[in-house]
């Protein structure tokens, strides 16, 4: 029988919280790597804290599962990882398809790895809930970054709603942070509410833009500009440089019209060529500057606390809705009330009141 021995790792010292006690490393890795055998929650927690990528991936699969038993397991793992999370910079990257998000993330990702950072790339892709595809699903994307041992790329979870996907992404952030990834990049496309969702889970929100033919500001959702902590005009190379410079001036002027942010940070506009790896280092320097300023004036922490409050309420709402619509009595009564509405025998308001009284 294997002798139980206390495990020591760098993570154990972190935050002064001891890691769960478990059998030695080789035993853990064997269990985790043996696909047929389900590792226990404690084994997965231990694996994650030891930066074991297989353990991390298996735990994320549990988080993404719809099986209630898996969800229960996932919750235990998240709870176990939570004390080790939070030690990262979370960056959101948005922009229309084709703007160069994955090329940009690959470029900045490689730069970050050269600075000894560990990066995790996740995605919130509302279209994947319908098509079951995902913006990170295509394996040819970020081909170089995938090969880096200090990078972890996880395609977007599919789900029934943006809220569901968002929740899974947030939980995945916690697991990645506990596994030692100190820079989390979350990619999203400008569809529906996905930017707002990603904005509510990151420290820094970056909007990638293209320079157009003088109509840069048209067709762009006002809300996104307001949310952006920086606008970066990509593809500023070749014949495009001149237009990119014009776009830069125009966006800078537009940003000036917005009131000063609570963070006391004025969102800058810069240019880059993700393809040629130009201007990427400057973007990272800008993000670092933001982190420094907002850490000093306490906005960084305040924003995270606000985000946590928001997610608490959001999770309660989601859960209440789920419980309500999955309640057997409600399911039957809802059909009855819908029929009564059709027959003009009740109003939607009276029907809602009757249904809500049932719980
Ligand atoms: P995404 O859909 O936003 O993720 O965009 P991709 O990163 O897949 O890029 C879309 C296309 O634009 C690809 O063909 C890229 O090679 C190209 N591209 C990306 N960044 C640049 C850039 O900085 N300059 C140029 N010229 N092309 C780029």
From TrEMBL:
E.C. no: 3.6.5.-
An example Gene Ontology CC term for this record: cytoplasm
Molecular function as annotated in GO: GTP binding; GTPase activity
Catalytic class of the enzyme: hydrolase
Protein keywords: Hydrolase
Domain of life: Bacteria
Family annotation (InterPro entries): GTPase_ArgK (IPR005129), P-loop_NTPase (IPR027417)
Region (Disordered): 1-22
Pfam families (UniProt xref): MeaB
Family of the protein in this entry: Belongs to the SIMIBI class G3E GTPase family. ArgK/MeaB subfamily.
NCBIfam families: lao, PRK09435.1
Designated name of the protein: Methylmalonyl Co-A mutase-associated GTPase MeaB
């Amino acid at each position: 029988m294997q002798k139980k021995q206390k495990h020591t790792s760098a993570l154990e010292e972190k935050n002064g919280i001891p890691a769960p006690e478990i059998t030695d490393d080789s035993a853990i890795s064997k269990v985790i790597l043996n696909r047929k055998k389900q590792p226990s929650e404690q084994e997965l927690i231990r694996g994650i804290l030891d930066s074991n990528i297989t353990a991390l991936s298996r735990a994320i699969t549990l988080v993404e599962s719809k099986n209630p038993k898996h969800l229960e397991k996932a919750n235990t793992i998240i709870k176990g990882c939570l004390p080790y999370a939070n030690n990262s910079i979370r960056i959101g990257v948005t922009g229309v398809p084709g703007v160069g998000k994955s090329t940009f993330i690959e470029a900045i990702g490689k730069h970050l790895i050269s600075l000894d950072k560990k990066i995790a790339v996740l995605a919130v892709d509302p279209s994947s809930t319908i098509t079951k595809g995902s913006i990170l699903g295509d394996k040819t994307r970020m081909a170089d970054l995938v090969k880096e041992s200090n990078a972890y790329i996880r395609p977007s979870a599919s789900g029934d709603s943006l809220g569901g996907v968002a929740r899974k992404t947030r939980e995945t952030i916690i697991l990645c942070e506990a596994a030692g990834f100190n820079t989390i990049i979350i990619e999203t496309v400008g569809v529906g509410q996905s930017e707002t969702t990603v904005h509510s889970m990151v420290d820094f929100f970056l909007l990638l833009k293209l320079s157009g033919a003088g109509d840069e500001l048209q067709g762009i959702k006002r809300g996104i500009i307001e949310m952006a902590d920086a606008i970066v005009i990509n593809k500023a190379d070749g014949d495009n440089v001149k237009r990119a410079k014009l776009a830069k001036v125009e966006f800078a002027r537009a940003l000036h019209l917005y009131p000063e942010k609570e963070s006391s940070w004025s969102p800058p506009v810069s240019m880059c060529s993700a393809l040629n790896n130009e201007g990427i280092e400057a973007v990272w320097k800008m993000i670092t500057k933001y982190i420094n300023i907002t850490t000093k004036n306490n906005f960084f922490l305040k924003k995270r606390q606000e985000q946590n409050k928001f997610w608490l309420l959001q999770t309660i709402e989601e859960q209440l809705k789920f419980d309500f619509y999955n309640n057997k009595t409600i399911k039957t009564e809802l059909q009855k009330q819908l029929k009564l509405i059709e027959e003009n025998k009740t109003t939607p308001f009276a029907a809602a009141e009757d249904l809500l009284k049932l719980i």
